[in-house]
Amino acid sequence: MMTSRISVRLIVIAALALPLLGGCATTYYDAMERAGIHKRDILADRVKDARDSQVDAQKQFKSALEQFASVVKLKDTDLKKAYEKLNAEYEDCKKAAEKVSARIGRVEAVADALFDEWKHELDLYKRADLRASSRKQLEATQSRYRGMLAGMHRAEKGMKPVLGTFYDNVLFLKHNLNAQAITSLNVEFSALRGKIDTLVRVMNESIESSNTFIADLKQ
Description:
By secondary structure, the protein is mainly alpha-helical. The chain has a single domain (38-218), classed as Up-down Bundle (Four Helix Bundle (Hemerythrin (Met), subunit A)), CATH 1.20.120. The chain contains six helices and no strands.
């Protein structure tokens, strides 16, 4: 419930603030701070968005594999329609991958801002014990963040070879609308399935890491 309220407030305030911001991230974060939404809240929200985009990408790549399988199993088929179907799946996979990358970039942007601010504010403490405690918490949070981000980037990187294999085969089908092309796709299917299975596993690890990081931020 709290996350939902934060998400709604982020959307509303961002919509009102965008015309005034001129693309300046610092101004944006300042406006959010004045509205009671801190960088930590924004980071949690963006990690959630990045996690959700990976879930969506998983579904899309699985759908593409199913369509690929349906084409290679057919003996008598309209090859032009088969090409159009696979090409549409490829384009959807590409868009899903781009969305994951964009959302990871948004996570990195607010995390950098949060950690820079936190580090600079350590000097504002008067009590050494509180400063030391805050520094320890910062280092622990950064460590958890780096682990989570590494998982996100592994998932992001894992999509590239899948897209490459998919694109090559769609392109081959486009230029060879005959039974030989279907035979070639059948040979490639096992390799593509293996790559997607690996990608799904890596994404699951990244999604779980994101869930853990979000829970830690809320403590």
